[in-house]
Structure formats: structure tokens, C-alpha cells
Amino acid sequence: MILVTGTYPPQQCGVADYSYCLLNSEAGKASGWKLLHTQDLSFKGFRQTIREIKQQDDVNINLQFPSRGFGKSLFPHFLCVYLRCFTRKKIAVTVHEFTQLGWKGFICAYMILLFAKQLIFTNEFERAAAIKKVPWVKKKSTVIKIFSNISQSDNLLKISQRTYDVGCFGYIRPLKGIENFIEVVKAIKDKQGASLNAYILGETWPDLQEYTAKIRAMAADAGVTILEGRNDKEVADILANTKVAYLPYPDGLSERRGSFLAFVRNLALIVSTEGPFVTQVQRDYLKITTEAQAPEIVSGLLALSSDEQDAMQQQIISFVKKELPASWDDIVKQYNNYLQ
After folding, report:
1. Contacts 24+ apart (CB under 8 A), 75-78
2. Strand partners, 332
3. pLDDT tens figures, 206-230
4. How far apart are CA 229 and CA 202, in angstroms?
């Protein structure tokens, strides 16, 4: 298998992390998966990519689409068309964000939906949305759920034993609900007059210095600690020491949110926002709310007795067993079985 992506670590992108975890899993290594990180999106770069693929003995090609590295380029679209029409390679495309595409993006993505031999979606909602627009997608697609790139801590504490009251995790950039998280923490403190051990854990972006400065000022005013520069183990340990994760995604929770998966894997209580991608299972096991109601929901969870909090954690454990893949090795095996 040759995995083609436009973004790969140390570049910051969910698809980059996803690709890295697939390739570096034990199953990925054992299966001989290879990386082709395409960074030159010019015509010369396109020809070089085709040349590299043809030189490989691997028949199966998996294209990760979209990714931050591809930007608005039609590189991945034409790559899919070329491989399907002019080579004997089997081109499969993992479609990460179909419902987020605008009308221009959909018109372009139509090329991929049409010419890809097989399609992989990371949740049923995205696949259903694609089938609704392009019915033939149903016959050549499947769902392989995403897993967290953050490991599970070796020290999974009961909720009642955890130090941090409420936390938020993810890239610190616009359209991630960071401002609302700070506002909710401040509202709880202002109403109850109580101390609240709250943090934002994540990495800032060098090209967003003005935004980062604004968030730092807001966080300082609300008594929210910003934690940066933590390695994977440190991140997992912090998440596993957090009682409540408040994740105010502007467009609502979905199955593929990496920060959500990291928190739920480390068995924190989850409070997140309503939206079109929320599944019924998430509504059954988690606390789905609006931004306006979030202060009440979060403070209500923190006010529960130790036994009640620990009982709710058992629901999270049930959710993990029911809804998440067993590991990245499991995901690779699903890929191999589907694409053979």
C-alpha cells in the first residue's frame, strides 16, 4: 500500500496525524505501508508523483483527501483520475470532510467520487451525505472509523480522584470554540464564586500571533491555564486527570473530532455542542448541549457526588467499547481487508 497525503508531521493537520498513525502502527509496518508525501503541487510535481508511484510494485494506492497541504489545488483530483484511467493501480480515496465542502469543493470532489475505485469514509454520516448526492457511492464505499492519535494514559483515574475540573484540548486557532470555553469557565466562576481548575491544552500557530495574544489575555482574565509543548504521554496524562472535557465545536460534535476521541479514550466526562453530525449514541452516552446551557451542564457535573461521577464514567467506558476501533492496528487491518 502506498499512502498519498499532502500533509504529514511535523506539519499540523488532522489528516497528517491520521496518516502518521496508520503508517507507524505495528500493522502498518508489518503490511509494508509506504508514505508518499506530495508537497510540490506544480505540473512538474504531478509528473514526479506519477513517476514515483509507477516505480513501486504496490498495486494499492490510498489517497487522503482533503488535507491542508493540498489546499485548493486540483492535484489530488487529477491524480485520482490519472491513476484510475491510465495505470493498473487500484486507487482508493479516504474522504475526511465531505460535508464541509462548499459547492465549488463538491464539484471538484465529484471527480474523486466518480473515478476512485473505492471510497473510505470515517463515519456513517459523511458516507450517507455523499450517497445522497451521488447514489453510486454506496456500492463502492465503506466506513472505517477514526481513532485517537493520543494514547491512553497508563494512569486512568476515577473522576472523583482527578485534579483538573474542566479542560479543552486541540489546536489553538480560530473556529475551534476556544473563546466560548473561556467564557463558560468565567461564567461558572462568576456565578458560584468558586475556584475552578481549568486549562486549554494545545499548540499555537506561528502565523496567528494576534489571535493567540487575544486568547492568552482572555484566559488570564478568566483564570484559565494554557498548557503548551507537551509530548504525547504528558497530554494523555493530563486528559486522564481531567474530570470534565468541555468541547464547544462551532458546528457541533462529530465522530471524527480528534480532541473528543482523545478525551473519551482517557475516560473524561464529555460535554459538547449540538450540531448536524451528532449521533444518537453520542446523545445517549454523552452530554450534548448548547453554548448557552453549557455553564449549567458543566457545573452540574462537577457538583455531583463522587459515586455519581464515577457511575457516569462507566457510561464513557461503555461508549468506548461500543463505538471506537480497538486500535490503529485494527484500522489498518480494516483497510487491508477492504482494499485487497
Report:
1. 75/6, 75/38, 75/41, 75/45, 75/46, 76/4, 76/6, 76/112, 77/108, 77/109, 77/111, 77/112, 78/46, 78/111
2. none
3. 889 999 999 999 999 999 999 999 9
4. 8
C-alpha cell at 73: 489545488
Cα 225 to Cα 43, 185, 196, 198: the distances in Å are 47, 11, 11, 6
Alpha-carbon distance of 2 to 40, in angstroms, equals 18
C-alpha cell at 25: 502502527
Cα separation of 212 and 318, whole Å? 37
pLDDT at residue 256 is higher than 90: no
**Average confidence score pLDDT of the chain:** 94
pLDDT value of position 2: 97
Q: Does residue 248 have a cis bond before it (omega within 30 degrees)? A: no
Contacts for 332 with CB less than 8 Å, ≥ 6 apart:
22, 25, 27, 28, 31, 33
Residue 264: is its pLDDT beyond 90? yes
pLDDT of amino acid 113 = 95
Cell of residue 24, nine digits? 507507524
Residue 301, Ramachandran bin (φ over 0: left; ψ between -120 and 50: alpha; else beta): alpha
Classify the phi-psi angles of 159: left when phi > 0, otherwise alpha if psi is within -120 to 50, otherwise beta: alpha
| Bond prior to 66 in cis (omega within 30° of 0) | yes
> What's the rounded Cα separation, in Å, for the pair 246 and 106?
32
Name the strands in the sheet holding 164-169, side by side, starting at the edge strand that comes first in the sequence.
224-227, 198-201, 164-169, 242-247, 269-273, 287-289
Count of beta carbons in the 10 Å neighbourhood of residue 100: 11
> Hey, what's the cell of 298?
458543566
- Which cell numbers in the block locate residue 52? 514515483
AA letter at 177? G
